[in-house]
Amino acid sequence: MDGFTREAPGALRVLLEDALKHAFDCDEAGRGATLESLAGAMGKSREEAAMALGELRARGLLVAAGDAHQLSEAGRKYALQVVRNHRIFETWLMRQTSTPAVDWHREAHREEHRLEADEVNAMADRMNNPRYDPHGDPIPTREGLMPKRPLPSLAAWADGVPARIGHIEDEPEALFRLAGALGLAPGTRMDAIAHLADGSVAAKVEGRELVVPAAVAGLIHLIGVDVGDDLPEGLGRLSDLRVGESAVVHGLAPSCVGPERTRLLDLGVVPGTKIRCEFSSPFGSPKSYVIRGAMIGLRESQAKRILILRPAEVSSSQKA
Amino acid sequence: MKSKDDVLKEAGELRWQLPQDLHDRIAESIHGEAARIAGRSVTRSGGDRRLAWQQALDRLLTHPLTAFPIMIAVLGAILWLTIVGANVPSAMLGSLLVDKGHGWLSELFVSVGAPWWLKGLLVDGMYLATAWVISVMLPPMAIFFPCFTLLEDFGYLPRVAFNLDRMFQRVGAHGKQALTMAMGLGCNAAGVVATRIIDSPRERLIAILTNNFSLCNGRWPTQILMAGVFIGTLAPRGWGGSIAALSVLAVALLGFGFAMLSSWMLARTVLRGEASTFSLELPPYRPPDFWKTLYTSVIDRTLIVLWRAVVFALPAGAAIWLSANVFIGDQSLAAWFVHGTDPFARLIGLTGVILLAYIVAIPANEIVVPTILMLTVLVTGAAGGQGAGVMFETDPGNVRAILEADGWTSLTAMCLMLFSLCHNPCSTTIYTIYKETRSWKWTAVSALMPLVVGFVLCGLVAAVWRSLS
């Protein structure tokens, strides 16, 4: 809630670290960083980009190879530390604060240049050393290890093959926001994937039919699921439950994160819990639910993130 | 045999092969296992069906057609009970502390030969201001808070938060803010303390910063007097009382509107964010324990708030008396200030006297009207006062005559009503906000935001009024 009291990092440090991250991205993609690619990616002039490259070379972090530049061993270590700062901080924002998802990247981008390694390690320890950030990106370990895992995008995924979302890119921001509004998050299960003529993708997502616009489908990267790891029939969401109906909790959707997830678990919204919708407020949200003998009011946006199973006969008659 | 480093390295690599959401799955199954163990070993008496009458009552209190009329009726009944019910004890306390007590203390000071300034400072200033605050503040609070606590214990207030949550969600706030705002109608300091029921810090801060837009008990007398003396007379014969009552209600509703609007603006700018957690427990209805409730609400809420008010009223009383009795050149401090600020104040529909009254009345809004009357008499030299720096109140006819002598019109009354809604919180509330937020920055925001709104609003109303008439 309070402002950041630490000193703003020097402009040079920000410039160099951003340039280093760009070189790291190029390395990962298997090409070298050039003056043009750096100036373009950072939105800086050629002079500034040339200055940054020269300074990084002088510090032994970059090695020139013709026009292109590659990271030295020290440069790679440094870049991984900045990436670690960014991803740990994003994870911390998601789990420990109520910062909206669209602000995670911006705040982490500012903080990555200020944080020191031991501060980040302490944060990681407090969160039990998370492996993935909120977007599904692997977080480099404190030893500087990070697996490469090029994941295929939803746009390129084969029709009909079930998958889980492994990673969602957070830029451009408007599309990332749209993905969030659709209820998509790393871990979200997608079934019955079918590509439509206009490039958009239809899928069954946690008991709901969804059409993902073509632009968003490009941001989403998928992982295959194990055989037998199928969602049960009749899966729905608590928000589908009408007043007077009952269901059994199947689990919390992966998009339910942070303090909200903890709170719901504490209330006893766990697999197997019986839940009944008791009455609704005049505006339709929140609704009150009987959970383990207590009556709790939950907003619709929360109820959407609780997956439920209904008795078979009820679900078939409610389908229409 | 592998070395320790090899094992660690292999573990570090295997770690990445685990499912991405492993932690969530483990946490979920631990909670699930705990629930299963509890389910096996705990037997509940009775089924999980709720009692029929509880169910029927819940349907009634949250039904789209009945929920809002019932809410308004309950709130209206509490306010009516507070205003009407407080009249008699307030008058009794007033005659005891203000009329008799002040007269008796004055005689005592005169009889022991105390210098006039000592008597003035202690008796006419500090004692009188404190006596005013206690007699005007204590009875309404002793009625309002127990009523409120009884509703809370019965289980109705959580339903109110439940009904209104959607509106608060729209502006980025928490449904429980409805309760703290209702509490603010009794006393903003109590409303600010009550925000502790909101667990997420962002929504709680919004509730704290906007609580001042709930028209508190201390401001109702100003509203009622202005509405009765000036606004009511604008209405056709026989309708005065109703129009006056409606105008007070309109100001209170305007306050609700401002609270929502400022919550919305805060949630879009400096306090951006999403509801971190929301869960509203709706306990079963149960008959409240009347005497216990009465005792705890009088001790916990009324007396604590009253004590803080008294602590701040004592120095305020001294300041009021000194401002009227310390002379620089040929004018008292009060006169200097009033004459200096009058041109600006008149521009926004107020008067210099009102501005000064709101400065010296920062400790307690209850003393605004008596202070305005005292200062007006002091500045205009109109008859009816009790001496410089001595607060008094008189009957409505006299009030109108005294104020019109200072050039008051219906516009002034209207702007005073709006300014009474939108100005800095009293010092008790400001101090409470600091104690709750531990931040001077937010305390300053909470004090200045309504003040800016008030100046702008009064200026606009005055400009529109002048262009129409």
Topology:
The complex is a heterodimer of chains A (320) and B (469).
Chain A: H1 11-29, H2 35-42, H3 46-58, E1 62-65, E2 68-71, H4 73-96, H5 101-111, H6 117-126, E3 163-168, H7 173-181, E4 189-195, E5 201-205, E6 208-212, H8 214-217, E7 220-224, E8 235-237, E9 246-252, H9 258-266, E10 274-280, E11 287-291, E12 294-298, H10 300-303, E13 306-309, H11 312-318
Antiparallel strand pairs in A: 1-2, 3-4, 3-7, 4-5, 5-6, 8-13, 9-10, 9-13, 10-11, 11-12
Chain B: H1 4-14, H2 22-41, H3 52-62, H4 67-111, H5 116-154, H6 156-170, H7 177-186, H8 188-194, H9 201-210, H10 220-231, H11 240-268, E1 280-281, H12 290-325, E2 327-328, E3 331-332, H13 333-347, H14 352-360, H15 368-380, H16 396-404, H17 410-421, H18 427-437, H19 440-468
Antiparallel strand pairs in B: 2-3
Helix pairs in contact in B: 4-5, 5-12, 7-8, 8-18, 9-11, 9-19, 10-11, 10-16, 10-17, 13-14, 14-15, 17-19, 18-19
Written description of the protein model:
The complex is a heterodimer of chains A (320) and B (469). Chain A is built from eleven helices and 13 strands. Chain A is α+β, with helices and mostly antiparallel strands and 320 residues long. Chain B folds into two domains: 68-268, no CATH class; 305-468, no CATH class. In chain B, 73% of the residues lie in helices and 1% in strands. Chain B is built from 19 helices and three strands. Chain B is elongated. The interface between A and B is large, with 62 and 54 residues. β12 (294-298) of chain A pairs antiparallel with β1 (280-281) of chain B, so a sheet runs across the interface.
